[in-house]
Amino acid sequence: MKKLILPAVGLLLTFSVPFAHAVDRGELLANSCFSCHGYDGQVSDAKIPPLANYPASMIVSQMKAFRDGTRTATVMDRHAKGYTDEEIELMAQYIGKQGS
Amino acid sequence: MKNIIQSLSRRQLIQLAAAGIAAPTAGLALSGCSQNGRKGAGSVIVIGGGFGGSAAAKYLKRYNGDLNVTLIEPNTTYVTCPGSNWVIGGIAEMTQITHNYDAAKKNGINVIHEMVTSVDPEKQSVKLSSGKTLNYDKLVMSPGIDFKLDAHEGVDTDTENHLPHAYKAGDQTLLLRDQLRAMKDGGTFVMVAPPNPFRCPPGPYERAGMIAHYLKNNKPKSKILILDQKNAFSKQGLFQEGWRNNYGQMIEWVAMQDGGEVKGFDVANKTIDAGYGQVKGDVINYIPPQKAGKLAFSVGLTNESGFCPVNQQTFESTIHKNIHVIGDASIASPMPKSGHSATSQAKTTAANIVLELAGQEPISAKNVNTCYSLVTPDYAISVAAVYDFKDGKIAAVQGAGGVSPMGASPEFRKQEAEYTRGWYRSITNEVWG
C-alpha cells in the first residue's frame, strides 16, 4: 500500500500491470454495448454513436427514454427494454464518464 | 505521462480512478479477490478463431491479464460469414471481410496456427498436428458448424464444388459469386435453404436479396427460386415486404409443405428432385442441414441433436467438465446461432472462467443478439434480443427485442443499412482488433 502515496506516474505504472480485474455485473453489462458501439465504446467511422465520451448520466437518461418510448429509435428501444433501472445504472457507471 | 495514459485501456483508467478514490480502503476494495490482490493464474486454451473463440481469448485476457491464454486456429486469416452475402452480391470485396490474428498476439494471446488432432478431457490436454501436447485448466471450444451430407440423395463431399453452400465463408463464397457472374441473363438461381437449427437464421434470405440486387442490375430477366426445408423463416414478413418493394416478382420462396421439400440431387445435370417436381437450376446454392463442427463430435461433446449441451449460465459442457462450448456448436436456444450470439457467449464464458479460477461464484450474465440483414445496399432490417439466465436456462427478456417494424419509411430502412455496416465494423474490431 506504500506505493499509493508515490507521485501519479508511479501509481499508474504500479497499478496498470498487476491490478486485479474483478468481473462485475456493470462491466459485463457494459461489454454488451461494445459489439455495436465499439470496443471500450470507441468507434472510428461508424454512424453508430461512440459511448466512450458520454457522461454516465446521459447514458442512463437516454436508455430509459428508449425503453419508455419517449425517444424513438431503430433498434435501441428493443435493446433498452431488456434492462432494469439498476442494470442501466450499472452499465452506465462502467462505460460513461465517471462523476458527470 | 500523456503517452502512458493513451496506452492504457479505458478499462484500466477507470480502475485506476477507482483505486485512487478508494486508496484509504484499498484493502477492502480488493477483498473480493485472492489474498495478493490477483485472481489466480491459470492456463486456458481456446480452440477456433471465429467470432466465439477470438472474442473468448480477448475477453479472458481483459478480465484477467495474468491468465495464460492460447488460441488455436489452423488458418492465419478468418473470413467472416457476416458480409459474405455482400461479396456474393458484388457490393463488397473479400479483403473487407478477412481478418487476422496480429491484434490477438498484441493483446498477449499465444496464437498457434495448427490443427487440433485430439482432446483428452480426463488429462485436460490438447494434442496438435505437430505432435505437441498442451495442458489446460479450462478449455473453450468454438468449433462452428459442419454439414450433414447424408440428408439428401446424390450428395457427397464433392457436391460443394459444383453446388456451393457458401455457408463457410472463403473459397466457397467466391465460387458461388463466380457462378452467379457466369450465369446467363434469364437464368434461374435456385437456393435450397436448410432446416432448423442452422447458423445465421436470416442468412439465406439476406443472400437472396443480395443476389437479386446483382441480377436486377446485370441480368434482369433472371429468377431466384428458394426451395425451403422448413415452413417459416426469420424476419419473414420483413424480407418478403423488402423483396416485393425492391425486386418485384424476382424472388420466389416455396415452403417445404408447398413443394419446397428436396429429396435429392442430380449434381452433374444441376437438377433437384423436389416436392415441386424436377427443378433445373443454372446455379444451385445448396445449403445442407447442419450439425456441430467435427471436433465437437470427436471429443464427444454432442448429444442426439448433433449439437453440444451446455450449462447455459457458464457454457460448460454438461458432458465433459472444464470444457466450455460456445457459438454455433452449442445448444443455447433461444439464442440464434449468430456471430453476435457467439461474441456475447464468449464474454459470459470468459467472465465465468475467470471467476471460477479465482474461486468465486458464477455470474448470470445478460446475453445479447443483434442480426442486421441487407435487402438492398440501402435497405436493411434487423432482429434483436436480450437474454436472461432464469430457472437454469437462457430466456429472452419479455417485452424486449423483436424485429424492425413492417411498413417503415425508406429513411428508416436506410438508417438500418448504415447501422448494418457500422455493426460489422464495430464487432469485427471488437473480436479481431
**Computed CA radius of gyration of chain B, to the nearest angstrom:** 23 Å
Oligomer: heterodimer
Separation, N- and C-terminal Cα atoms of chain A:
29 Å
The N- to C-terminal Cα distance of chain B equals: 25 Å
What is the SS-derived class of chain A? mainly alpha
The backbone outline of chain A, from C-alpha atoms, is globular
Question: How much strand content do the residues of chain A show?
Answer: under 5%
> Residue ranges of chain A: pLDDT <50 for 5 or more in a row?
1-21
Which two protein chains have the largest interface (Cβ within 8 Å of the partner's Cβ), and how many residues from each? A-B, 49 and 69 residues
How is the largest sheet of chain B built, in terms of strand order?
5-2-1-9-19
Q: Describe the biggest sheet of chain A?
A: none
* Helix share, percent of chain A: 40-55%
Explain this structure to me?
- The complex is a heterodimer of chains A (100) and B (433).
- Chain A has 100 residues and is mainly α.
- Chain A is built from six helices and no strands.
- In chain A, helix 2 packs across helix 6.
- The two termini of chain A are 29 Å apart.
- Residues 1-21 of chain A have low confidence and may be disordered.
- The two termini of chain B are 25 Å apart.
- Chain B has helices at 2-7, 10-21, 26-29, 51-63, 84-88, 102-106, 171-182, 203-218, 236-247, 294-298, 339-357, 410-432; strands spanning 43-47, 68-72, 77-79, 98-100, 110-112, 116-120, 125-128, 133-135, 138-141, 145-147, 188-193, 223-228, 251-254, 262-266, 271-274, 277-280, 283-286, 290-292, 323-325, 367-376, 379-390, 393-396, 402-403.
- Chain B has twelve helices and 23 strands.
- In chain B, the strands form seven sheets. Chain B has a five-stranded parallel β-sheet, covered by helices on one side.
- Classes of the chains: A mainly alpha (100), B alpha/beta (433).
- Chains A and B meet through helix 1, helix 2, helix 3 and helix 5 of A and helix 2, helix 4, helix 11, strand 20 and strand 21 of B.
